[in-house]
Design a protein that fits this description.
Helix content is 11%, strand content 51%. By secondary structure, it is mostly beta strands. A hairpin with a 2-residue loop joins β1 and β2. The longest helix is centred in the N-terminal third of the chain and has 12 residues.
């Protein structure tokens, strides 16, 4: 089950609540907020960077163990800025009628759902029952240093009743390729990707031929019972991501917000520079330097990857 609640903006930031129960892995929940910001037309390299960030999130297993132990669910208050989002996640009670969680020192969520309409969300070969309605109760949330402040007793939202298992029931016709629109895979894209990881941060970049450069980043922290994950992404000119043919060195200098500064890669894993990003509630978070380990890889149509650390 998945719950989406829309809140009024606060100080120019978009506000929402996302919740789930007994559906998906911890990694998929942690990256949920960032995926909401990616459009359906987001390129395969950018989607791959988001998935890699989710898989490499330090500490995400903590949230999964807690959710499994209490068998209640997980919820997060999500704050969206320009190409960046911060998600404050906790375990809590998530049912078809009730949403409850204490978001540490930031506030709490206590909402009851009053459905007004029933609809069906169509997703290609599957259908998801959806209830649209109003949530009443109390949402109190204040971000770090009061950068956002929410105090409301009513909001609109929806409840998605996700099946335990998705199965494709589409009929395959002779001479017709099923789900042609969705058949965009890595093997149809040739691009070079860099990933840099530390204990509490991730940065990724991708360059697809000479079209553009894509950048994606995440930082993570625990504050008591609250797991805070922040994500940012942007695109830029091809010149903002340069590398040599042997993939032994690279220089990245994103120019679009929320990124600032530049960073240099030197094989096998050195990653240095002034690169940073500003997230809601966490300005100028470093994305290079001490504690980071980087890798540069090339993905092609006929080979899985070629990396700075050797072929694979």
């Amino acid at each position: 089950m998945q719950v989406d609640v829309s809140l009024e903006n606060s100080n120019g930031y978009g506000m929402s609540i996302g919740a789930s129960r007994s559906s998906g892995s911890a990694a998929s929940f942690v990256v949920y907020g960032a995926e909401r910001e990616l459009t359906a037309e987001a390129s395969a390299p950018l989607q791959d960077l988001a998935k890699k960030a989710a898989a490499d999130v330090p500490g995400s297993a903590k949230l999964e163990r807690a959710a499994n132990r209490h068998r209640k669910g997980s919820l997060s208050v999500q704050v969206s800025g320009r190409n960046a989002i911060s998600s404050y996640g906790v375990t809590g009670a998530v049912t078809r009628r009730l949403l409850f969680g204490r978001v540490g020192e930031f506030g709490r969520v206590f909402l009851r759902f009053h459905p007004h309409k029933e609809r069906t969300l169509h997703g290609g070969c599957f259908r998801i029952p959806m209830r649209v309605g109003t949530f009443t109760g109390k949402v109190r949330f204040m971000g770090e240093d009061g950068y956002v402040d929410v105090n409301t007793d009513e909001a609109r939202g929806r409840v998605l009743l996700l099946p335990k298992h998705f199965s494709c029931k589409a009929r395959q016709r002779a001479g017709h390729t099923r789900h042609r629109a969705n058949q965009v895979t890595r093997e149809r894209h040739r691009y070079t990707a860099l990933s840099a990881i530390s204990d509490d941060a991730f940065f990724g970049a991708a360059k697809e031929s000479s079209e553009c450069s894509l950048f994606y980043a995440g930082v993570f922290e625990d504050q008591g019972p609250v797991f805070i994950d922040r994500y940012a992404f942007s695109s830029g000119k091809p010149s903002q991501f340069r590398f040599n043919k042997r993939l032994t060195s690279a220089r990245l200098a994103p120019k679009e917000q929320p990124f600032q500064g530049a960073a240099d890669f030197n094989a096998p894993h050195r990653w240095t520079g002034s690169l940073s990003a500003s997230f809601p509630g966490a300005p100028d978070a470093p994305l290079a330097g001490r504690g980071f380990r980087a890798q540069l890889e090339r993905y092609g149509a006929r080979s899985s990857s070629q990396s700075s650390g050797g072929s694979g």
